[in-house]
Write a structure and sequence with these properties.
Layout: E1 2-10, E2 19-25, E3 32-33, H1 38-42, E4 62-65, E5 70-73, E6 76-77, H2 78-84, H3 87-96, H4 102-113, H5 122-127, H6 135-146, H7 159-185, H8 198-207, H9 218-230, H10 238-247, H11 253-264, H12 272-286, H13 292-300, H14 321-336, H15 343-356, H16 359-363, H17 371-381, H18 388-408
Antiparallel strand pairs: 1-2, 2-3, 4-5, 5-6
Helix pairs in contact: 3-18, 6-7, 6-11, 7-8, 7-18, 8-9, 9-14, 9-17, 9-18, 10-11, 10-18, 11-18, 12-15, 12-17, 14-17
The structure holds s-citryldethia Coenzyme A (SDX).
S-citryldethia Coenzyme A (SDX) is lined by residues 234, 237, 268-270, 272, 299, 307-315, 364, 366, 369-371.
Length: 436
């Protein structure tokens, strides 16, 4: 970051001495006022619950222009990456800052491929769960448990340990996600096959079985890969901020990623794709497009908690570019599977059209986000609704690791420890129980 050629001055109307604060600019996006000395100089904190106006770090990984609806991974527009690159190239880009050439891509893919197996003991973790446990509960446990198998490489301050942990997590997430799915349906786990692509391997571990060969459908393989690319990273969203804060204590990378999985599970965040598909199915069951008007009235009613899941975003105040690409992927997959008339896809498009013309959504700048169409395409591929967020976690693992590694390799980083505005009881003495 670069010192700007101007400063910020904070003055007080109660005669308290004003203070000057440095301003920094990045390469693109808003400048920042450096308030790190504010408490020392004024004895005051800033107040920003939800971090609407707070930059928690500097980062060179992903940039979002919410007004333009623009998303860049290391400077490359998501529209170009999603159509010209695959997930392995995207992982290399996010982790190391550059797209790989053919040889580097081959080497990176070989490295990831040869770390896809998990320790044989991992399968016994699953037996402790009920078969109908939510896959995100299982994944949080499995990923946290991974750290128990790598005592030789969990020092987050050791660059080699960070590197091998990154490869292990990217490589093993598809295996663990498919194990969580197979466990829930009582089918045997499949080992990864090293002659398949990352996405093809995942589809086979999800939908293959030991009794017959599984043939990867190239259209579904490409769609799965694109879903991974679109979900790979997204600046300092809630789960990434969780991973950074968790990792700032010096804990091991597996524990930090497990914390990210737990945060992503929430319906306001990564759980929105599951919530969105449930919303579409309920609406379809209640009458489909004919019921959209009544549903929208509920969504717009201040007193109702009903939200149009898959719509709205803290940063995008325009169309989420990932939603457009996801809709195209939806079209491709539904055509390939002869599901062009999928009622849920038609209902989603009808909902989107109505919302984008409705004053409530227009004034609040609520547009479809990545989760609005991702559920429909995953359901068409055969992924059960309760697995959607697990797929999101699989894809976002590379972004979480890239962000965690960026933080740890920043010599200025410290353990994160926010302060508060205290509004509780002032100091008082404990009364004897007889007097309470
Ligand atoms: C992801 O941060 C990221 O980058 C996340 C993510 C990533 O890749 O990591 O992009 C992934 O989490 C996408 C978002 C998925 N969540 C949903 O689709 C759930 C539905 N959306 C909302 O819950 C909401 O839009 C959020 C949580 C996404 C954003 O919330 P904000 O920024 O805190 O905005 P807000 O809730 O204050 O909404 C502003 C107004 C409110 O009305 P008023 O109080 O001003 O009257 O818009 C309304 C909200 O009630 N609103 C909605 C709405 N989303 C916001 N009303 C109806 N339906 C919605 N979906």
């Amino acid at each position: 970051m670069k010192l700007a050629d101007y400063k910020a001055t904070l003055s007080f109307s109660n005669g308290k001495a004003p203070i000057e604060m440095p301003v920094y600019n990045g390469t693109i996006g808003p400048d920042v006022v450096d308030i790190r000395k504010l408490y020392g100089q004024t004895g005051m904190f800033t107040y920003d619950p939800g971090f609407l106006s707070t930059a928690a770090c500097q980062s060179a990984i992903t940039y979002i222009d919410g007004d333009k609806g623009e998303l860049l991974y290391r400077g490359y527009p998501i529209e170009q990456l999603a159509t010209q690159c695959d997930f392995m190239e995207t992982c290399h880009l996010l982790l190391y800052g550059e797209l790989p050439n053919a040889q580097k891509k081959k080497d990176f893919t070989h490295l990831v491929t040869h770390h896809t197996m998990v320790h044989e003991q991992m399968q016994f973790f699953l037996r402790g769960f009920r078969r109908d446990a939510h896959p995100m509960a299982v994944l949080t446990g499995l990923i946290g448990g991974l750290s128990a198998f790598y005592h030789d490489s969990t020092d987050i301050n050791n660059p080699e340990h960070r590197e091998i942990s990154a490869i292990r997590l990217i490589a093993k997430l598809p295996t663990l996600v498919s194990m969580a799915y197979k466990y829930s349906i009582g089918q045997p786990f499949l080992y990864p096959k090293n002659d398949l692509s990352y996405s093809g391997n995942f589809l086979r571990m999800m939908f293959g079985n030991p009794c017959e060969d599984y043939v990867v459908n190239p259209v579904l393989e490409r769609a799965m890969d694109r879903i991974f690319v679109l979900h790979a990273d997204h600046e300092q969203n809630a789960s990434t901020s969780t991973v950074r804060l968790c990792g700032s204590s010096g804990t091991n990378p597996f524990a930090a990623i497990a914390a990210g999985v737990a945060c992503l599970w929430g319906p306001a965040h990564g759980g929105a794709n599951e919530a969105c598909l449930n919303m579409l199915q309920e609406l379809q069951a209640a009458g489909g497009v004919a019921k959209v008007g009544e549903f929208m009235t509920q969504v717009k009613d201040k007193n109702s908690t009903v939200k149009l899941m898959g719509f709205g975003h803290r940063v995008y105040k325009n169309y989420d570019p990932r939603a457009k690409l996801m809709q195209e992927t939806c079209d491709e997959v539904l055509k390939e599977l002869g599901l062009e008339n999928d009622p849920l896809f038609k209902l989603a498009k009808a909902l989107e059209k109505i919302a984008l013309e409705d004053d409530y959504f227009v004034t609040k700048k609520l547009y479809p986000n990545v989760d609005f169409y991702s559920g429909i395409v995953q359901r068409a591929i055969g992924i059960p609704v309760n697995m959607f967020t697990g797929i999101f976690a699989l894809a976002r693992t590379v972004g979480w690791i890239a962000q965690l590694n960026e933080m740890i390799s920043d010599p200025e980083y410290k353990i994160g420890r926010p302060r508060q505005l205290f509004t509780g009881a002032v100091k008082r003495d404990v009364p004897p129980i007889a007097k309470r």
